[in-house]
Amino acid sequence: VFRAQRFRFSEEPGLGEEGAMLEVRVPQVLHLQYGMYVWPCAVVLAQYLWFHRRSLPGKAILEIGAGVSLPGIVAAKCGTEVTLSDSSELPHCLEVCQQSCQMNNLPQVHVVGLTWGHLSLDLLALPPQDIILAADVFFEPEDFEDILTTVYFLMQKNPKVQLWSTYQVRSADWSLEALIYKWDMKCVHIPLVSFDADKEDIAESALPGRHTVEMLVISFAKDSL
Known about the structure:
Elements: E1 2-10, E2 21-29, H1 40-51, E3 60-63, H2 70-77, E4 81-86, H3 91-103, E5 110-113, H4 121-125, E6 131-135, H5 144-157, E7 162-168, H6 176-182, E8 185-190, E9 213-220
């Protein structure tokens, strides 16, 4: 059972011109799997893409742990070459990725099964990416190392790739940054106010609400060499 949920991204009109607007629909699936809902982090990451949409056309973008794929769909609507991925062990999640593409008339978007930490044929076959999107994938601490293993592999293909990631602050007991440094990566915290995401209702939705969401840009520490 699913219903469509609408998100409408817009900007204030400039002097003498109409403001840009983008409407996206994604399925909301009544299912126990985490990936079947739009989480606060996804809306914040989608807003970051919308804010930077003029720099996106032509870029190769991969969303990992995509689920309903709101950020990836926004990226595709902004003129990028998008690949959506979720665990190859969760075919239902991959079906939802496909459903999101169909609802937004995006037949050109690829959907592949990628399981974090596994060196699969689909991962090997991926062309170099410019941006990796990850909304709230840093959820279960036991997954962090597998996620960064996969990201590190993609950084070997293109050392200039960036991981654009949002995560919801739930616990002070773990540090993602220590792991990032271990994997020869660096991260920059992006203030939400800098891309109009410092509010409770982004894209005419009730998200992110009062949840504390962090926006990170993670890159290879050696990318300046």
